[in-house]
Design goal:
The chain is α+β, with helices and mostly antiparallel strands. It is 34% helix and 20% strand. The protein has a 7-stranded mixed β-sheet. Strands 5-10-7-8 form a 4-stranded antiparallel β-sheet, with no helix packed on it. GO terms for molecular function: 1-aminocyclopropane-1-carboxylate oxidase activity; 2-oxoglutarate-dependent dioxygenase activity; L-ascorbic acid binding; metal ion binding. It comes from Nicotiana tabacum (Common tobacco).
Length: 320
């Protein structure tokens, strides 16, 4: 029988169940690459408002455009599998190092303000989680945040997606299988329409929709920094015939010039054959490579970065 998808109650860290909760996070990071957070400190009211405004924005500004795109490509009538397109309607918001929130057209002021507030809360939550990961990994507090910092702080942005009803879900994916390139991903997803799946032990497993939860998953950069102790996991979105699925994924990533490499402490602790499995590179270089290879296996990306291993000088990461 498959083990249950990990759900972590963050509030329990303040109780006598702290050690048990840290173990649950550790197990989720090592064996799943995903977990679902409840009692994460972002109010239900904020989440309900964001869901309402996101769905209204899609209906008002994006739904018709999506239908026109489907009609222009003849997607209603496809007979064979489509492998170069995703059945999704998206827009992107940048928060750090520079926000574009007030330049994205068509967003109502109330929606902009709510998203700005939400991004600040998610940024704090991401940094809190990175410190919990440091604790579990035996790294100094602040190590991961500093590793992501670069010269201008982390890169942080949000992909707002809607997955409308699809007439041929067996032929068109909502989003093709991939691992995420960056650091820590925080997802607020629809609690009524499912679709997100992850690959575990060769099987596709549903990430269950849960009201007011935030789904966390680990990107390629955390796999590199932890020298493979934590892994980024392949996931996809299955299009559904009924209902539009909302997905708001925020990516807390390294700064573009951050130099990413396995934490020396974790390399020292590794078994001999795993001493140094991963390359050292500048995050922006990895992203350029990823842009063309997103829907392919991650291992060749790591190998390609090894081949151009950066000569950037690495001084120890200061955590104070």
């Amino acid at each position: 029988m498959a083990s249950t998808f990990p759900v972590v109650d963050l509030w329990l860290l303040q109780t006598e169940k702290r050690a048990e909760t840290m173990d649950k996070i550790k197990d989720a990071c090592e064996n799943w690459g995903f977990f679902e957070l409840v009692n994460h400190g972002i109010s239900h009211e904020v989440l309900d408002t964001i869901e309402k405004l996101t769905k209204e924005h899609y209906k008002k500004c994006m739904e018709q455009r999506f239908k026109e795109m489907v009609a222009s490509k003849g997607l209603e009538a496809v007979q064979t599998e489509i492998d170069d397109l995703d059945w999704e309607s998206t827009f992107y918001l940048k928060h750090l190092p520079v926000s574009n929130l007030y330049e994205v057209p068509e967003l109502e002021d109330k929606y902009r303000n709510v998203m700005k507030d939400f991004a600040l809360k998610l940024e704090k939550l991401a940094e809190h989680l990175l410190d919990l990961l440091c604790e579990n990994l035996g790294l100094e507090q602040g190590y991961l945040k500093k590793a992501f910092y670069g010269s201008n702080g982390p890169t942080f942005g949000t992909k707002v997606s809607n997955y409308p009803p699809c007439p041929k879900p067996e032929l068109i994916k909502g989003l093709r299988a991939h691992t995420d390139a960056g650091g820590l991903i925080l997802l607020f997803q629809d609690d009524k329409v499912s679709g997100l799946q992850l690959l575990k032990d060769g099987n596709w497993i549903d990430v269950p929709p849960m009201k007011h939860s935030i789904v966390i998953n680990l990107g390629d950069q955390l796999e590199v920094i932890t020298n493979g102790r934590y892994k980024s996991i392949e996931h996809r979105v299955i299009a559904q015939q009924d209902g539009t699925r909302m997905s708001i994924a925020s990516f807390y990533n390294p700064g573009s010039d951050a130099v990413i490499f396995p934490a020396p402490e974790l390399v020292e602790k590794a078994e001999e054959e795993n001493k140094l499995k991963y390359p050292k590179f500048v995050f922006e270089d990895y992203m350029k490579l990823y842009a063309g290879l997103k829907f392919q296996a991650k291992q060749p990306r790591f190998e390609a970065m090894k081949a151009v291993e950066t000569t950037v000088n690495i001084s120890p990461i200061e955590t104070v």
